[in-house]
Amino acid sequence: MTRTVIRNGLVITAAEEIHADLLIEDGRIAALAAHGNDFAQRWTADRTIDATGKYVIPGGVDAHTHMELPFGGTFASDTFETGTRAAAWGGTTTIVDFAVQTKGHSLREGLDAWYAKADANCAIDYGFHMILSDVNDGTLKEMDLLVAEGITSFKLFMAYPGVFYSDDGQILRAMQRAESNSGLIMMHAENGIAIDVLVEQALAAGRTDPRHHGEVRKVLLEAEATHRAIQLARVAGAPLYVVHVSAEEAVAELARARDMGLPVFGETCPQYLFLSTDNLAEPDFGGAKYVCSTPLRPREHQAALWRGLRTDDLQVVSTDHCPFCFSGQKELGRGDFSKIPNGLPGVENRMDLLHQAVVDGHISRRRWIEIACAAPARMFGLHGRKGTLTPGADADVVVYDPHAEQTISAETHHMNVDYSAYEGKRITGRVETVLSRGEPVITEREFTGRAGHGQYVPRGTCQYVD
Fold this sequence. Notes:
Blueprint: E1 3-12, E2 17-25, E3 28-34, H1 38-41, E4 47-50, E5 55-58, E6 60-65, E7 70-71, E8 74-75, H2 80-89, E9 92-100, H3 107-118, E10 125-131, H4 137-148, E11 153-157, H5 168-181, E12 184-188, H6 192-204, H7 211-216, H8 219-236, E13 240-242, H9 248-259, E14 264-268, H10 270-274, H11 277-280, H12 302-311, E15 316-317, H13 350-360, H14 365-379, E16 397-407, E17 426-436, E18 439-442
Parallel strand pairs: 1-4, 1-5, 6-9, 9-10, 10-11, 11-12, 12-13, 13-14, 14-15
Antiparallel strand pairs: 1-2, 2-3, 5-16, 7-8, 16-17, 17-18
Helix pairs in contact: 4-5, 5-8, 8-9
């Protein structure tokens, strides 16, 4: 049994802030005790970490990543090895990635392919959601089997006709199945049928630049799809989690549903909080770096997203990390924005950007931990193990320097992508040391982890739903 003590830090969880020492035994949190407490003074350890002047926080839980995702004739540039290493550098100790069912194939086949990609390659712990591309009697039955083995959430798309798209009938059937097996439906809420019409019209009119990606994927088509998804979930009696919410009107749909007491939840991402259509309009095809779906919105939408995070109409900030290099990948869409692979890098930046939001006064320190650690753990059946520093939980712990200053840049990040979406942004706060199940992964700004340390984590059902 190995013992680690972290002394003299400010322990911050979603529930409290306390000047306390932390005892870790055999990969789990064993005890917390106030500084100077006789009990804590008697602790002996194999490793002692001095966190004077630092925060001691739970490792981040990023519940929305896409490592090695096939999209638009190419693959996301981060592997499970490079992507989880970068996550650790950014203070994230658990990811939940998306296994993909290929149309015409079984869920099991898709899930097994993702197990194989991740197995023995991850630096931190990981779980999976399942993307349903083909809702039919067979895949509906498979949903029950997956819930039993800890794959308890299923993503459906109202966008991308011909690839991932499900129609309203398929969505309703999947929601009904989730209601019976206690799974959680995650929804990409954009009206893809209408968007494809607007894409075709834009290209025919010669509007081919990246900025037009944002113009055709209209706010109203996100809001309409969000509304429709909520109503279908009501009919099915099922909970609903709407991913990557980007627009004020979509937040309003979620707020209205939650005001009615419905089990409806929403996620946003750092790109919608810190970037805007100004980035999509960058010259010389530079806007291609920022093409993702839902798209970046005009800056005025950001206030509604921050407000939604403060009022709990949005519960989670994930990254939707899906990186494609500018050179050779994003460039596939030169002359046709619809061929630009959709996705941004961000798994390394989320915790730091949200700390900057604390510095800027958008959220409190405890809310930072809530939306980045505790809420995603509860939402996806990991609470008790992840996202907290309570005794018995996995010792996923970050020592965080709230005063260190850094400049985000592709030159210094660890994601396997040739640009940063936040290039040159100066922020306050930086990860110093990261433990995953008690093992040092980042030690005073040096990577000391290894591929294969990360374990697959089967998940329970959503802990916000009875």
